[in-house]
Structure formats: C-alpha cells, structure tokens
Amino acid sequence: MNTQKVISGFFFILAMTVNFGFFYGDPANLEYHSAYELFAAIVINLIATILKLGDKTQLGSVLLATSLVADIQLIASASVWAFAEYVTKHIGLEETVAIISLSGGALIANIVSVTLFVGDTLKSKR
Amino acid sequence: MDSSNTAWIIIRRMRIPLLVIIITFSISILGMTLIPGVDDQGHPYKMSFFDAFYFVSYMASTIGFGEAPYTFTYPQRMWVSACIYLTVIGWFYGIGSIVALIQDKQLARELDIARFRNKIRALKEPFTIILGYNNITHRIIDWLNDEGIRVVVVDRDESKIAALDLENFIPEVPSIAADVTHPDTLKLAGIHKRNCEAVVSLFDDDMKNTKVALLAKLLNKRVKLVIKSTTRTQSEHLHNLGVRYIEDPFQFISNRLYLALTSPNLWLLEMWIFGHILRIRDRETLPRGKYIICGYGRMGHALEKALKKAQIPYTYIDLKSEQYKREKSSAVYGDAEDYRELLDAGVKEAAAIIAATKDDLINLTILSTAKKLNPKIYTIGRENTLDDVTIFKSARINRVYILELILAQFTYLFIARPLAYRFVRLLHTKDDAWGARVVEALHTLLGENPIHFEITVDEEHAYALSREVRKGRTVTLGEIRRSRADRTQPEKIYFLLTKSAEGEVTLVPDDDTPVTEGMRLLVAATEESRTDFEYVINNYYELEYVLTGEG
User: Fold this and answer.
1) What is the DSSP string of B400-437?
2) ipTM score of the complex?
3) SS3 B343
4) Do B49 and A78 touch (CB under 8 A)?
5) Which residues contact A51 (CB under 8 A, 6 or more apart)?
6) All domains of chain B in start order, with CATH
7) Is residue A3 pLDDT above 50, yes or no?
8) A73 with A103: CB under 8 angstroms?
9) What is the pLDDT of residue A107?
10) Are B380 and B360 in contact (CB under 8 A)?
11) For all residues of chain A together, what is the average pLDDT?
12) Rounded Cα gap, residues B8 and B12, in angstroms
C-alpha cells in the first residue's frame, strides 16, 4: 500500500463526491443546495489540484488539467452566488440555475479525473 | 535537461506550502461562518461565505482593515485570535519556502543553464567553443574577440567561470560551469550549431583532450578541433580519429629552435607573423658551439631532436624537477653537487644552456648558476606559466620559451588566421636563402615594422575587384599593387600567400598571377597602405585608374 496514493486518491474522489452532493437536487431551487457544501467542494478541489502538481507524465498533465477546470467552474459558481446576493441583491431563477449548472460542469470534470485515475490504477501491474 | 526544469522545481517545492495555506484558510473561513455574531441593530446574524472570505484574506496577510461587516462579538474574537496565528504561520511558511527556493543551488543551476542556452541560441556570428578557462585561453579569447569571432567557454570549476564573468569581455563570452567530457555539455555549448567553427581543448591531461576530441568528432564531423597532445602516441591516436589540428607545444618549440639554428631568416618570418618586429635583435642570434640541455623529459627530447637535426653538438643533464625537489627538499638549483654536475657537462666551454624542466624556479636557478660559472654562456629558459613572466624578464635570460603563450598563439592563428597559419607551416619547406630574399624585399618596401592581414576577393571585402574579375577581365596581382596617387609607382603592398577558391596555395606569388574570384590573399603592408589598398579594390574609379590610368 502506498500512502501517497491513498491520500491523493482520497482527495480526488472526495472532490467528486462533495461536488455531486452540492449539485444534486432541484436545479431551480437554491434551498436544496447548501453553501457549506459548495465551500467544501472548492477547498477539496483546490487540495486535489495541489496534489496533482509536479507529476511530469502525460497522465499527470491531463489530471491536472481536469482539476483546473473543476476549480474554475466551482469558483465561478461561488462568484455568481456572491455577486447575485450582494451586488444585484436578487437571486432569481436564472441566477440559481447558473450557480447549479456551473457546479454541474465541475462535476463532469471531476468524473473524468477520477475515471482516468482509476483506469491508471487498474492498468498498473501491482 | 529540458527547458521547463526551472518551473518544475518551483512547482514541486511549493506543493506543501500551498496545501498549508489552503487548509488554514478554509478552516478559518468555515469557523467565521459558523460562529454567530450581532449586527448594528442588535439582531443575531451569521457571516456569509463571502464576508468570511474577505475578512480572512486581509487578516491572514496581516493587512487588517478592522472588523467587518459589524463589530465582532467575543466568541467571534476568540476564534479570530486562533485564526490569526494559524493563518499567519501558514503564510510565513509559504514565504519562507519561496525565499529558500531562490537561494536553492539546484534552482540557481537550472537558471544558469537556461540563461546559457538562450545566449547560445542568440549567437548568430561564427563562434568557437573553448574548454577550460586559464591564462592561455584568456589570451585566445582576447585575440579572437578582436577578430570578430565569438567565444563560448566551458570549465568544470565554478570559481573560474566566476573569474571569467568578472573580466567583462566585449563582446560577451557566454560561459558555464560543467563537466567538459560529458556529451550533454558539448551539446549545450552549441556544438551542433551551424555557426560553431571550432572546439579548443588544451588541458594538461592528454586523456581528457582525447576524450573531448572523440566526443566532438562524433557530435559534429564538420567542426575544427584544436587539441593539445604532448606525446607521439597520443598525437597518432588523434590523427587516426581525424583531428585536423593537433597542438604539441614541445613540437612547436623543437621546430622553432631548429629554424632559429639553421635558418634565422625563416625563423624571423615566423616570429613576425606572431607579432615580432622584422629584425633579429643582437641577443636573439643563437651562438654556434656546444649546447647543454638540463631536463630530459618531453621538452628535453624535443630539443634534442632539433639540435640533432641541425647537427649541433650537445650534452644533457637528466634532471627531473619533482625528483629533485623531493630529494633535496628545495626548489633552488645550485648546491656543490649541482655545480659539479654542470662542470662535468662542460659548462665552461659550452656556447649555450637550455633549462627545460617543468619547474620555473629550478629553470631560473639553473640558468643563474650556469651564468656564474660561465658569464658568456647563452641562456635559454622554459617558462611554464604566464604568471611568472615578470620574474623571467628581470632575470635577463637571453631567450625564453613560454609554453602557454606559444599554445595560445598557434590556436589563435589556426582559428582566426588560416592563411597566416598556412604560411608559417610552409616556411619549413623553404631554405634560408629564400627567407633572406623575402625578408629583404619586405624591408626595402615596408621597413622593419610591417603588418599583415588577410582579405578575400568577394563582394563584401573587394567589391570593385570581384565584380571586374567576374566579368571576365584579367587582373594580375602586380596591377592592383600600384599606388592610387600615381599608378607608375608601386603601393607598399607585398603578397605573401594566395589561396584560390579551389584550394590551390601559392607562396609569395609572382606579379603576373591573375586574380580569381574567391581568392584569399595574405598581404604584408603598413597601416597606411592597407587602407589605400582596400580603397582601390573596393572602389570602381580607383580600380580603373590603377588598372588603365583612366577614371
């Protein structure tokens, strides 16, 4: 067992599951989506990104790319939320759907990342 | 070694500091949103994520804009106190890591390599790679820079590279500290580049030189190699490798001594090419009679060969500097035993003595001892390093052979002045009477201090002349050395050597030799006549006047 692998695998999968936790629910109703979950998703995605840094292989580069996509989508989602709440002071249907669908995009990036990670693990002989 | 190494090193080192910062921030932010506060109207509220993120961002970086959006309650302040220490430690750790990274040896090395590589890539002029930086190569760099040939230096020793950087050569000499016997180093120094002309390797260690020669030959067949070799077998090895130019300093000295003994005029011509004035000074005439060689190593053998060939009687004293120093624990020659040794060798009736050991101090003391025994003896000394040049000068030795200087001169000539180099080589095929005629001709025409230069008949260097020749007009060397002030008078120009575009070499060509396109000329002149000559061959009107009297 490789501790390094356990830690990074843990964060890659956690990033996906927490992301899913926020995304799941009626996309038109913000009450079904917790801000704490979005915060956790952002933090865990950032940690996963850092863990992917410094791997020079082809796979490492693709993993890093998916993580960066997820980060940008989630931060965009949080920014839309903050902007709607404090600047326009109105969270209507359009804003709600934007927040949720942005996190949905991040979820897909996370799924790709985890698939690649699992695929690589299966491929290795040990 | 790819160019993004620097970026990778930074990313790898910054992983843990970044993780620490993200975790401390998220803990602080989460805490801020969970702890209830009271707004300005006394209603309880909870901070939103945005407020918390804003507050923690300026708190962690210790900017501190005060408590926002409302004054904090005590539970909030307690949490903030904890957060301050948590996040500030995280920040300090991150900043500390960056500072440590800047001082990191490995990173600095990668940055050096990247910078060096960029400089090599930017080199557009022809350049020479010099391996090893020392007194010899320092001179070569100076001379090559004067000729407009750029130089790249590699040395294993970092302090030497630092010393080179302090020299402020103009134009700049890109340099790097690296192992010269490694192929990657040679590649880094640009041996693959089209404009890399030569590789110079003049280490004391013959094995190292051979290794460099082999590597360089394999990496780039076309590049000229200047490789030092001090033994015959080594030279043969190199020759078999196809190395075109092998420098054996002892061979040079042997040839030079032979010339000086048998044909002083040829010797004078060779020395003049290297910057001597065109006259033999009185103390430079070698005496006839018996010679004593002190030191019978590589140099001693080379000198012996020259003396034998010149049929000069000689004896030798087999003196090994290292053994001498070990046995007598002194680097000063001249105790009672040494006196006897010199007397036995016949110092009293000898005409000249040559001190040829590896140790400069022993050489000096041999000569001063010999002078004491026989004040009229002609002294010849071997000087090993250029550092001792002033001592040797003040010791009033009649003739000094400085190994390092000779190496530097030949290297420079080979790389920068191929025609002059050819001229020196061809001198050895001529006899002294021929030499005397050339020296006489140069004297009457140009005086005792002529200069020499090389010129190619092409559009860049001889615009008018090359155009006329290409049109099919016959122009001879005699015609272009007429004065542009009065064409009936000759200009102060003397052609020493021509090399046609096909590679045919003529030593001291006749006046009716026709000029061909792409021909290269080695010309002796004065400063003034050189300017006039260049004017004539570049300007249509001047050329026409010189050739026909019109225009």
Assistant:
1) EEEHHHHHHHHHHHHHH-HHHHHHHHHHTTS-HHHHHH
2) 0.87
3) helix
4) yes
5) A7, A8, A11, A12, B15, B19
6) 5-102 (1.10.287), 107-247 (3.40.50.720), 250-416 (3.40.50.720), 450-548 (3.30.70.1450)
7) yes
8) yes
9) 96
10) no
11) 91
12) 6
Instruction: Determine the length of chain B.
Output: 551
For B143, the token pair is: 């001379």
For B396, counting Cβ atoms within 10 Å of its Cβ (0-12 exposed, 13-18 middle, 19+ buried), the class is exposed
Mutation target for B interface from A46, A80, A83: give the one with most B CBs within 10 A: A46
Q: Which of residues 33-52 of A touch B (CB under 8 A)?
A: 35-36, 38-39, 43, 46-47, 50-51
Among B3, B10, B11, most A C-beta atoms within 10 A, so best to mutate, is B11
Cα–Cα dist B103/B109, whole Å:
11
Does the beta carbon of A30 lie under 8 angstroms from any beta carbon of chain B?
A: no
In B201-329, alpha helices (H)? 206-219, 232-241, 249-262, 264-273, 298-309, 321-328
SS3 of residue A16 by DSSP: helix
CA dist., res. A52 & res. A63, Å (int) = 7
Q: Is B15 in Cβ contact with A39 (below 8 Å)? A: no
pLDDT band at B1 (very low <50, low <70, confident <90, very high): very low
Residue A50 has its nearest CB partner, among B8, B22, B50, at B22
Minimal Cα–Cα distance from B122 to chain A, Å? 28
The average pLDDT across A62-73 equals 95
Number of domains into which chain A is organized: 1
Q: Residue A56 is encoded by which pair of tokens?
A: 């020079």
Domain limits for position A13: 3-123
**Selected residue with higher pLDDT from B325 and A70:** A70
- pLDDT band of B388, cuts 50, 70, 90: low
CB contact under 8 A, B8 and A56: yes
Mean residue pLDDT of chain B comes to 87
